[in-house]
Amino acid sequence: MDREPEVDLRQLRAFLAVADELHFGRAAESLRIAQPALSQQIRRTERELGVDLFVRTSRSVALTPAGRTLQGRARSLLAQARRDLDEAVRVGRGEAGRLDVGFVVSALPLGPIERVQVFRQRYPLVRVELTEGYSSRLLARIVRGELDLAIVRDPDPDPAVRFRPFRSERFVAAVPRAHRLAGRVSIRGSELLDDPFVFFPAVAGAVATERNLASVVSGGRRPVVVQEATTWATVLHLVGAGLGVTVAPESATLAAPDTVVLLPLEGDRHRSELVWAARAGDDREILRNFIAATE
């Protein structure tokens, strides 16, 4: 055969009906079509394949060797087609597929992973892959299409990304246990202005930096960062070791070591905002399902 045969699923179903019944009348009745139309479909399939599939007499219908071979193959092809079509429908409905989700570690005490688990239980055919990182890197991966969505903290605005609120929380000061203010019940942020700071690098984001340090800035003066780290866990351990002080979102300090004292900030109205981030214009059903399941 010089060219690829073109046989569609309807022709395969018609062939199988006749192959199973070995009777054109009963096969036509099961397919709810007229017998002449069924006979035409079978002849068209045989012409397309270039072989006879049935031996027909006035009294009987029998499969040829080619017909017997196609009978098993056609059943498998139709079953696979049904599975593939069902999967496509599930993917289109957001009920199957893959979802790549990023998160900042400091958000974990507030329950985002538990919400991911709710989604997994509701949509078991969706494979959810989790990736940790800090906000600016997670956002860059969303823009590049490497992540579908992420929970980030105090992100810089970006027209390529849309945000959905998750949780808002206060800031607290973290000082070494031997610090001069460690015995206080609370402090003003400006009282830390002359202390060396341990903090994230500037690439972590301008908004995050300004919100964290806003309670300390006073009279145009800003704290001096003497040591940088890329996770709150590292920042807090460095504070506990006496390298400096810091201001952190409350949930980020829940696992602070015993060498750190946490102090509420008097009169501080600034808040750290955790948000879900996704690519602007990405309105796939799988994302809608995720948001609905995790609200």
Automatic annotation (TrEMBL):
UniProt entry keywords in alphabetical sequence: DNA-binding, Transcription, Transcription regulation
Q: Which domain of life is it from?
A: Bacteria
The record's section on Pfam families has: HTH_1 (PF00126), LysR_substrate (PF03466)
Instruction: Give the family from UniProt.
Output: Belongs to the LysR transcriptional regulatory family.
Outline the extent of the HTH lysR-type domain: 7-64
Q: Where is the signal peptide?
A: none
Alphabetized Gene3D superfamilies for the sequence: Periplasmic binding protein-like II, Winged helix-like DNA-binding domain superfamily/Winged helix DNA-binding domain
PROSITE patterns documented for this protein:
HTH_LYSR (PS50931)
Q: Cross-referenced InterPro entries, in alphabetical order?
A: LysR_HTH_N, LysR_subst-bd, WH-like_DNA-bd_sf, WH_DNA-bd_sf
| Coiled coil regions, renumbered to chain | none
Q: What is this protein called?
A: LysR family transcriptional regulator
Under CDD domains, the record lists: PBP2_LTTR_aromatics_like
